[in-house]
Amino acid sequence: MASLRLDDQLCFGLYSASRAVTALYRVVLEDLDLTYPQYLVMLALWERDNRLVKDLGAELSLDSGTLSPLLKRLHAAGLVERNRQADDERAVMVSLSETGKALREKAEGIPDVIGTAMGLDDDGVARMRAELDRLTESVNAYREARSPA
Amino acid sequence: MASLRLDDQLCFGLYSASRAVTALYRVVLEDLDLTYPQYLVMLALWERDNRLVKDLGAELSLDSGTLSPLLKRLHAAGLVERNRQADDERAVMVSLSETGKALREKAEGIPDVIGTAMGLDDDGVARMRAELDRLTESVNAYREARSPA
DNA sequence: CGCAACTGAGTTGTGCACAACTGAATGACG
DNA sequence: CGTCATTCAGTTGTGCACAACTCAGTTGCG
């Protein structure tokens, strides 16, 4: 039976874990002068360059209200270029600059550092990821049913 | 072997899950006119009233930079009182108003709604909470070792 | 064609999260 | 007793996250 006690709640555990991981990234990403959300955008671009703002938003579940200023900062840091599409003037293509591509080298070691800090073996990581994905899916489905977009 | 691929990463799963749960709370807490962090403070006070700002901060791992304006908003909403201690003028005691106490009734149903949305049985919740707590602990220990307070 | 509906990016405003700081109150110690 | 370090709450500034909105560009459709 669920109660209103703070320490019963899975949600608080999730919130705490997420903040703890972000705090670790803050330290690790200091070298690269990136915040965690900026690092996520860079990850997406390192994986596949030349993306529309819309597509980055879909992958990270972030809207233009978050991405526009974030991309402006990445541009100011010299890491990405932004160009409107010729065939659709509404759309903006985001591309890595040479500096942005080069930064990938400095990021190579990060996943292992984070992995070590989490103290999970590969199985543990995979299991937890699967559970978290299922949880996200379930929660989003419930919310969308209750509060239709 | 950890890689820089976005969809490999446990951290992104954690970040996504945390945002999904917060988005669900946003809908559920609409009735109470509370944000999720405000709800956490109310939970802490419903559990034990009359707390110093410092103690709330310790329980929720939030500093005064976050709590001071949040408590100001809870006060403006008529839910809490804030009074400086007579024996230590630095400390501020946070107490529930009658309205704040009464709001608890409206919150009684929330844990079950969230539980249903997450689609986990009691065992699943307990297991996940344990894993998340362990993860938080491990990550915080690593970070504190690497970047001493 | 004409125009209404929609789409994509951006802006504005609110509220967290956190670093860095201020300033008053307290405590420790020679 | 004096003074120096510490503690506590609050403020300021930056950067997400998100709702609500604007506005130009595009599409659909009669």
TrEMBL record, chains A, B:
Places the protein is found: Cytoplasm
Main location: cytoplasm
Keyword Cell inner membrane: no
Alphabetic keyword roster: Cytoplasm, DNA-binding, Transcription, Transcription regulation
Gene3D superfamilies: Winged helix-like DNA-binding domain superfamily/Winged helix DNA-binding domain (1.10.10.10)
Xref: Pfam families: Staph_reg_Sar_Rot
Domain HTH marR-type: start-end pairs: 7-137
Protein name: MarR family transcriptional regulator
Species whose genome carries this gene: Amycolatopsis heterodermiae
